[in-house]
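Lecture 7 notes. Example A: sequence first, then its structure tokens.
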Amino acid sequence: MKIALINENSQAAKNELICATLKSVAEPMGHEVFNYGMYGAEDPNSLTYVQNGILAAVLLNSGAADYVITGCGTGEGAMLACNSFPRVLCGHITSPLDAYLFSQVNDGNCIALPFAENFGWGGELNLQYIFEKLFCAPGGGGYPKERVEPEQRNKKILDQVKEVTHTDLETILRNLDRDLVKGALSGEKFKEYFFANCKCDRLAQCVKEILGEA
């Protein structure tokens, strides 16, 4: 599984810590981690939590990433921004229990973490335990086990609802403010990672047009 990490401007200083913690858990499980930044507080390619949502949607809809780890100060803004887009199901996660239940019950593809609120002594340990429980088993396994069938049924219904309530991502990207979208896709390593992993030619072409490379 390809896992993308995205940090926004208020918590960019923690990017190295978050990425190292994520890699320490995910890579031994056979997953790949791609750090899309921000790469520090002084990174010139600044991202807001709204742009985190745009970038997460581009990565997930194109197949360039299978899962997105993002967040902000409280995690709430990033979660709301991500859930504004089609084919992104983002949970607000604060504990290992949240992570496990979101994975097993809701089978999402994105989480938003609070990187400032209650992130004090031992914060990196909580992150480690969250990542362990998030990826310890394939998503959608259900909890408790006797609830597997209705939980999986409800997830399929939610996916169908989102297909109706959201338009396609290409249309969304072209209708959004061009500078807002371009800023979300201008990270130092975005083009290197995205175009190497993108599985959707239409979205790749759309991104090239937005970046002025078509």
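Example B, a different protein, same format:
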Amino acid sequence: MNFLDFLNNSVTPYHTVENLKAFLGAGTEKKVQLFERGGALIAVRLPRAASAESKFKIALAHTDYPTLKITPNPDCSAAGVRTLHPEVYGSPILASWLDRDLGYAGLLAYELEGKVQTKLFRGKKLFRIPQLAVHLNRNVNQDGLKVNPQTDLNALWTAVGGKERFAEALSAELPLGVRLLDFDVQLFDAQAAQLGGFEDEWIYSGRLDNLSSCHAIAEAFAKAEPSEHDFQVAAFFNNEEVGSNTREGAAGNFLKSVLDSLTPNSEFRTPNSLALSIDMAHACHPNFVAKHEPNHAPVLGGGIVLKVNAQKRYASDVFSNAQFKLICEQNNIPYQTFIMRNDMPCGSTVGPAVSAGLGIPTVDIGEPMLSMHSIREMTAKKDHQGMIALVSAFYL
């Protein structure tokens, strides 16, 4: 699956799931089962012969990313322009959303013959949130840009005299004669993913956090052969950016219910199982080196990042760390280690929720990246290739 195409086409969690289903579904001859729940997906490949020695090999990622979601009643107008009021989802760098070509996409719910149906869509038009000119904000370069999420993020979508309401534009995406009931629509960076750097060594794109991990897992899972005894699992959750505590999130019962359906007696859920929680990691920023812990500052192109945190914001522990390191060493895959500075708060991943809920040792890892949570991020081609190699070795 071409990485850049996957980035360009996965513009919402729902689109990501559809793309993953289409790719992984081609491997059904290898005993692959797919389980979908909204913007989340779990793929399982059964072993040739399950036994008392069987274990789970689980790779985890998430399909969502920080964004701006269109509110239920978004329509506003001012200065001859119709605007849409969004709600902030997750923790995006708000300033990065200004002066960008913005697409819109999502899921529409409508009534057909007295029942609720849904349709996935991607709009064909471009919106924009223009920044205030420097002439009207003279100190912006000295004081920094301050974005008020309530008043400064309304997206310009049409001139007064066009569509009266945004819901009318969405209804045009539906079959004739049906009634729009609700929608889950978000904005996204419409600029295509591309290679960058003098040697094309980097990848510039929106949604790298965490579509890079989704792609790496899918590539490795699709190429894997069935194990003799072990269950190979790929789990792609939604709502990580807002805490995972949803029915599609890692703190919900989705993964547990799938694994219970495969092994009702839970006899395979042993300490010998292992989960890789794969999410992006902070690369050392060359202009802000002091923001990183000096002995734990991974760099772009330096290898997969092992993420450790004493407050258990990451699931990594001595047992899972050792297994990860052994896989890397046995397959000549470089790795580096990250911890957050003691004077800065640490983020989290799906790892702690899954590890606590299932009792499976879990290690948090990721590709190093810059501009995390910006509308447009960057990572290294070399590290992405390393992650695919790591997950492939893990599934053996």
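Note on Example B: The chain is about 25% helix and 30% strand. The CA atoms of residues 108 and 183 lie 5 Å apart.
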